[in-house]
Structure formats: C-alpha cells, structure tokens
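Lay summary. Proteins are chains of building blocks that fold into shapes, and those shapes determine what they do. In this project we predict the shape from the chain. Here is one chain we studied, written as its sequence of building blocks.
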Amino acid sequence: MLTSEQIELFEGDAQLPAKEVLFRDPSFLENKMLPVHRWVPWIAGYSASFVNDVLAAYLPQEPEDGKNGLVLDPFAGVGTTLVQAMLNGYRTVGFEINPYAALAARVKVWVSFLDLGKFGNLISSLEIFNRRRSSLQHKAQAGVPKGFRSRIPFFSPAVQQQVVFILDFINEIEDENMRDLFRVAFGSVMVSFSNYTYEPSLGTRPGAGKPLIVNENAIAILINKLWQMFRDMEWVQTHSRPPSKQRESHQVFNANFMAAAERELPGSPVDLMITSPPYMNNYHYVRNTRPQLYWLSLVNESSELRQLEEENFGKFWQTVRNEIPVEPIFDNSKLNRLIQKLGNTRQDKGAYGGPGWANYVTSYFNDAVRFFHALKNVLKPQGVGVIVVGNSIVQGIEFKVDESLAELAENGGLIPEGIHQIRQKRVGASITQSSVRRGQKNGANLYESAIVVKKP
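And here is the predicted shape, written in a compact code that computers can read:
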C-alpha cells in the first residue's frame, strides 16, 4: 500500500506554482520507495520530486495548442525524468548509451501500455516451477556468457543452476514486452545473490568484508521483484493520471545523443530538457553494469564494452590517459589555465599523473561542447534545458563544473539563465586528493547545482 506522501511524489500533485524557479534537494534516495522508479537500483540521478519542480516551472499545465510538450533526457539512465514526465502527461524522448539502462528506461515509460494480465500469468508460471523444481529435470540451454570474466566465480554453483533456468525461462517468453519486463527484473536483483556487491562500485563480496553466497533461492528473489513490478503497474494503470495516450509518444533510443539527436528528432522540437550527465568523477557506469550487459546478452564481446567506453560522455581516465595530449575544442581562458595547471602536476607519473588527468578533464569539456551543440539543434525557440551536475576535485584542483558548463553553453549559442545550487554538500567520488576522499584540506567541498539554459 502506498502512503499519501508516496502518492503525492509519484503523481506530482505537490508541484510548485508555475514560473517559480525553486528546486528541492534532488537526492535520488526517495526513488527507492516510489512505484516504477524503484524497479532498478542506480548509483546516481535525481528525485521524482525534483523533476516535478522543473516541469511545473517551465512547462504549461494546459498546453495552448492541445499537444502536450516534449520532454527530453539525453542521458536518460534508468528513466527518472522520462517516467515522471510521462506520468504528468507529457510526451518523452530519451537517449542512453548503456543498453541495460536503456532497456530499463524503455520498459518503465511503457508501464501504462503493457498487458497486466499476461504479466501476472507469466509470474505465476515461474512460481509453479519454483515450487516443483526439485522434482523436475531441466536441460539447460543458457550458460555462462562466453565473453564474461570475473575475478572470482560470479555465481556459486547452486545459484548459477537457478540463473541458467531463469534465463531459459525468459528466452522462451514469446511476447517481447513481457520478456523485457522479466529481463529488467532479473538485472535488478542478480547482483544480490551473486558473489559481488555494490559498495558503490562493483566489487567482490570478500573484498567488502562480506561472505560468499554459497546458496540462495534466486528464483524466489526474482519472483518477489516481479510481483512488486506487477503491483506498481496495476497501481499506475488504475490510479495515476492518464499519460500521453499513444505508446509511440514515449521513446528511448539506445544511442549517443550527440551523434544521434538530429537523426532521431527531425521536426520534433523539444520543449524542455532535464538531465544529469555523467559527473567528472570517473565513475565507470559501463563496468559497473558488466554483469547485466553480459548475462542479458546485451553485449557479447569486450570490444563492445570498449565502444561504449569510447562513446561515454566525458570518457574515462582509463581510456584517454595514454593518448597524446588532448586539445581543447573550446575557448575558455579560465578553464584552460586550470587544465594546464593540472597537466603540470606530478609529471613524473606520466599518464598516471597530471598529464593523464588533464586528458580526462579536457575530454570531458570537449564532450560538453558537443552536447550543447546538439541540444541547441533540437530545442525549440525559447525551449529550456536544466542540467544537474556537481563540481569535481582532481589532483587537489577544484573544477567548478557548473560554472564552466554555463560558459560553454553561452559560447554555443544558448542563454544561461542561472545556476541554482541545490545541494551544498554531497558525498561521492571526487577523484583524487580531495578534502572528502583523502582528508587533505584544500578549502573545497563537493556540491551540486542545476544549470538553466534557454534557446534564443
């Protein structure tokens, strides 16, 4: 049963008055208790209530032309922006290069259009097997993904036997939408019965001081997740406000926004963009979803992972540290001086010192230039973009990413309307030599801001 507070957050009834630009703390922790949002754990993002605030501030409640506005998230993750905009009645479009996250986001935005009865019947079939599996013999078709490697066995033998059956069961589901619901459910719980754990990065359980999972009823855990999803779907379909009526009004592209935006959005000017790009903290979203990507057959070779790393916004230090010095494609004297200062630190360490990190920071802001170019092309005149991002501390040098992005947006032809600091203190990876991570005093704290830009 949902509490009144959950319903208020989920439906968006607690929206701020239109045109009042005031954003609440965007902490995504509240999403863990909200229907649909809670389906897939994700390391970062913002809350459903934050999205409500942005929608209320920048989109009309009653569209003048009778056509609901189009809301874009170019770094969709698992779909917080898209789900909340869809439930508020807006059309949505998202881009996400991670195939697992894109799959989750797509399933979630279609929650109002999926066959609840068929979903329940399939869950019941899995329940029946789980009760009888000790007396049944199943010849496994699925197996350990060919290209998947881990330091220790990802699943213990008794657990892996169940995992193989689960995957065979999923692969035999004929309805693609139902199959995707089961795939998302399995991906969301699979680490919980594995010998790995998120702390928050993916690592072995022994490395985190936890025992190996020798045996666990993995099928029962999956079933519990599936019934949670069923209840959320039922609630949305019977109690929430009607979303935009056509499923085609909600799209998620498994693609790089900078490369695919104009191709996928011809003649569809965006009214409002809400997003949070990867922070400049070298957090490796691709590697942290390796198990889901391989076990769900979303990738099959390490070369496919490398391609995702190369397409990732901002790249990763590991992918650019050994390259020749990356040249900036932006003209920002303050930012260039900071990068030069960074490149001059610990030069004796080569790619592992300042020069390698300077490549990373330069690559990050180069991608920001490309992002603003693509955004300007798809926003309608007077269209607004809201970007949530945090500052970073690299080798003891603070980069105020929010201020730099606002300047790059202006250089790219957008109008920076303001920077709203929405969290004055946050925890998280700040890369190296920060007051948060290593205790060194450099006078800098980690914070988070919302940057508002507008197309002329």
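What the prediction tells us: Residues 1-7, 13-20, 434-439 have pLDDT under 50 and may be disordered.
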